[in-house]
Design brief:
The structure is a homodimer. The first copy, chain A, has a seven-stranded mixed sheet, sandwiched between helices. In chain A, strands 11-8-9-15 form a four-stranded mixed sheet, with helices on one face. In chain A, helix 1 runs antiparallel to helix 2, helix 2 runs antiparallel to helix 3 and helix 2 runs antiparallel to helix 5. The two termini of chain A are 36 Å apart. By secondary structure, chain A is α/β, with parallel strands linked by helices. The model of chain A has no long low-confidence stretch (mean pLDDT 94). Chain A is built from eleven helices and 17 strands. Helix content of chain A is 38%, strand content 16%. Chain A has two domains: 117 residues, Up-down Bundle (Four Helix Bundle (Hemerythrin (Met), subunit A)); 205 residues, Rossmann fold (3-Layer(aba) Sandwich).
């Protein structure tokens, strides 16, 4: 991507994942692959560039992917790319999170009958509203989650379900932020989360930036910390929640849920209701992205696994509803988790005031 | 270490961890930090060099550390270093494995009343015998383990308890080798084992070298493979086994044991009887080595965790006896695992023929 735009920090949000600039022709996006060592925003001008950024994990995290896809649709409209083509391109990037497909389909409906500048302006307004709404949702669910957490001291989280994975504020880390804002003393243990190290690189970065105490642990240490009573609760995000309450999230989430159960520690999921896919009856129906073995076999171009030996690497796993203590949403706390309570929270509709 | 010895592959064992050369003045040691990309042997001429090699993980794995310490004592005798000083130096390197202290203490007793060339020759003969005995033990326990495993298809292992962690042949991987030698079709899933990646670098390397099918998985994937029924049994090694059957082993072993139990998959430990420490009543009494946070926060000198954020990293954890299905030793299979059965196997004494 050759470009002459000056690099800068986004206005108004020190680490917002992306901003659609005023002319609706450039998205400035934080390059998460360079964190924590470099805070760099790259300009994207086409839907193809957005799709490449999503696939290569410049941006990741289910709600953030939805917002990125929405901005990608705006860029498509702005550059005259047919929207059905843009939709197909974006949907093919990463299949597990429900947000990309859902956002792209909604924007397809909105676009019906519109064209030219009117189309661009309408889609851009919708995308910006989606972004703002996601932040508002996270603030609400964060509050509900913090109340439910009570006065726990140490929360384990896996991967990054923070400001960097959403429109801002974060889902799982939004709960932590809300707990701290309410005067709580909660500290965070962050699984490093191989192979992309989202916990080590991203969760640690954004919590440290906010002055929230965080320590990084290897994924394989979690059991040992549980056994020593050093973890009071687990809070993670979600890429897709099935109608029965099964939760698809970053690979390793299921192991953490098993360990939490064995040690009688509550396991919470924090996710806005747009993460719930009522068309998906259970976790078995969630498409699980298989990523390239090279992401495991190599670190920074250095081979860690001998030549000829393969790695197997699913990007996500499914935690069955029975292992989930509660789900924090912007419409309240779903507890216990099952088809009935999921149906009820979806039927409740959005909260009366959007922000 | 400046030296002019030609680098070479050890005679008679394609990847023996170390060899004490004939003059008893040089140990050629495989540098495991360079695997899998480079197979390089470095010469060690003093006990201090041996201690440095142990501390920096040129050699690792509990039985291998015992053998390395034995050779270190020979080098001390050869260079005129007081043996009590050598013993203290070696014991301080890595505290969790029982082998270093045990070997060094035994050699102290043997040395009593000896000096000069007689002392060197006596210690060298004892050290070489220890090395050979360990290989013989692994072959015996491997056979017992393979019989107990039966016709399982897929074994998960954690870290490296292979030829590279022992005198040769391996404990956990010795069981795999014995199963293959007996005509079994067993395949291996190897946890990559952060932060040193002993599974990715070492287990994969030595199994691939022997033509045994192996795939590497991230540590956080194990739960997902269990849940899909893709793991039939777990076999790991041990750094120290307490008198009640609790097992100290590489960090992450406890998490795997929990997951195995939740999914009703047998969890086996393979270790020669010199791993059992009858002076250690239970796992709580095993000293757990805390290693430098930098081993987690950095990969190949590149910072993965933001500046100012700490990592917590214990090198080992303890799996309680109740989660261990059986222990494979050179004196037979300990099953069920508890103080009674442990006492019995220790009391049985060594098998009649040493090799």
């Amino acid at each position: 991507m050759s470009d002459t735009l000056p690099e800068r920090t986004l206005s108004g949000a020190a680490y917002s994942i992306a901003e659609l600039l005023e002319g609706n022709d450039v998205v400035l996006m934080l390059d998460q692959l360079r964190l924590p060592n470099e805070e760099r925003y790259i300009p994207l001008r086409t839907c193809q560039q957005m799709a490449d950024a999503i696939r290569s994990m410049v941006v990741r995290g289910a709600p953030a992917l939805g917002i990125a896809a929405a901005y990608g649709m705006v860029l498509a409209a702005r550059t005259g790319m047919p929207l059905d083509q843009a939709a197909a391109l974006l949907k093919a990037t990463r299949p597990t999170a429900v947000h990309v497909a859902s956002v792209v389909d909604q924007m397809g409906s909105i676009a019906a009958g519109l064209s030219g500048e009117q189309l661009v302006r309408r889609l851009a307004a919708w995308a910006r509203q989606l972004h703002q709404q996601d932040v508002a949702n996270n603030r609400r669910l964060g509050k509900f989650g913090a109340e439910r957490l009570g006065s726990v001291r140490v929360v384990l989280t896996h991967c990054n379900a923070g400001a960097l994975a959403t429109g801002g504020y974060g889902s799982a880390l939004g709960v932590i932020r809300a707990a701290r804002e309410a005067g709580g003393e909660v500290r965070v243990l962050a699984d490093e989360t191989r192979p992309y190290l989202q916990g080590a690189r991203l969760t640690a970065w954004e919590l440290a930036k906010d002055g929230i105490p965080v320590e990084v642990i290897t994924d394989n240490s979690a059991g040992w910390f549980f056994s020593r009573g050093e973890i009071d609760a687990v809070v993670v995000g979600a890429d897709r929640i099935a109608a029965n309450g099964d939760v698809a999230n970053k690979i390793g989430t299921y192991s953490v849920a098993c360990l939490a159960r064995m040690h009688e520690v509550p396991f919470f999921v924090a996710a806005a209701c747009d993460t719930i896919d009522m068309a998906c009856a259970s976790g078995e129906h969630v498409p699980i992205e298989q990523r390239a073995a090279r992401e495991v076999t190599h670190i920074a171009d250095c081979r860690m696994v001998p030549d000829g030996v393969q790695a197997r690497y699913a990007g996500f796993d499914v935690t069955p509803a029975r292992l989930v203590t509660a789900i924090f949403t912007e419409r309240g706390v779903v507890e216990p988790v099952g088809p009935e309570t999921i149906r009820r929270v979806v039927a409740a509709g959005p909260p009366p005031v959007a922000r």
